[in-house]
Structures are given as structure tokens and as C-alpha cells.
Amino acid sequence: MPFLNSAPPRPPPRLLQGMLFFFFCVKSKGRRGTSGHPLSSTEAH
User: Fold this and answer.
1) pTM above the 0.85 mark?
2) How far does CA 27 lie from the centroid of its chain?
């Protein structure tokens, strides 16, 4: 696919926003301790 080769490797902004939202959710949950998973398990991902 020549288009993929010529285009710069940039993820879509939607994916970036989703990842940021997910990261913040996991961080806030780990800080409050409401989530059953410890911070170490989230960092291993």
C-alpha cells in the first residue's frame, strides 16, 4: 500500500484521546483504590 508508506506513522486523534481517557481512568482508580487491581498490574500492561 503506497499510501501507508508515504503517510507519516501518526495514530488517529480519536485513538489518542481514547488511550488518554483510559490511562486517566486507570490512574484515578488506582489512586483511590476503588479498583480491585493494584497499580503494579496496570503498569505491567
Assistant:
1) no
2) 11
